[in-house]
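Hey, resending since the last one bounced:
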Amino acid sequence: MSYDILSILQEKESGFSKGQKRIASYIMDSYDKAAFMTANRLGKTVGVSESTVVRFAVDLGFDGYPSMQKAMQEMVLNRLTSVQRLEVANDRIGDQDVVSMVLHSDMEKLRQTEEVVDRGEFREAVAAILKAKRLYILGVRSVAPLANFLGYYLNYMFNNVHVISGFSAGEMFEKIVSVNSEDVIIAFSFPRYSAPTAKGARYCRSAGATVIGITDSKLSPLGQCSDHVLVAKSDMVSLVDSLVAPLSLVNALIVAVAAKREKELSQTFANLERIWDEYDVYEKQAER
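The structure tokens again:
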């Protein structure tokens, strides 16, 4: 479906049965909670059968309830306030074991990410990084750790890496004002999408730089202004944005780039090992 599910409900409301009207009314009033309910739970909440909910999804034009649920989740992810996130998370968790729920959710996002990552886009992103004159890594707020992690390792491989993660919008533009066609920008953005990140990426692309967007969809604000989009699935767990899958994709990016610079890295780390040992950077393992 290419348009908001709330628009679909309003358009078809006059033709709904009594039970369908109860489902539609609940979704329109509490879409933040409905989006994360199973068909069975939604049915019990509004007083209809699970099969009625499934038929309702089909009548709306979806191929089943999972498709309708996905449409609802995509709609709400960027609308939820922090308070709503907390309410939805508590409702989803209920009496479940929190550790199992979170770990299984992360594993599912890893599985989904493996399926959706475009290998061609990935190879092109690696090639762009390898030939860049300067690398800018842009990630603010909750995705700042991803930007810093990637920057930490790329600094071993390249001499001109700039991580922009803890700056205001004004300071960010001061850092990227000189970007040009020889530069590459790697930007991160997941719901709730940071407006300055998309604006910064858009500016860099207009200046001729190559933008690699790591985000949850090609249709996200960052995805729409990137030359190469690497899709990683994230999830909302209470106030926490689950970034396990995006971090795994970052790991893959680092490994791929390092493999192409094996000779240079071997020399760099040979020198670093000597320096680390001389200045006691790491604790030495005691002999048994």
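The two ends are 64 Å apart (CA to CA).

Sorry for the duplicate.
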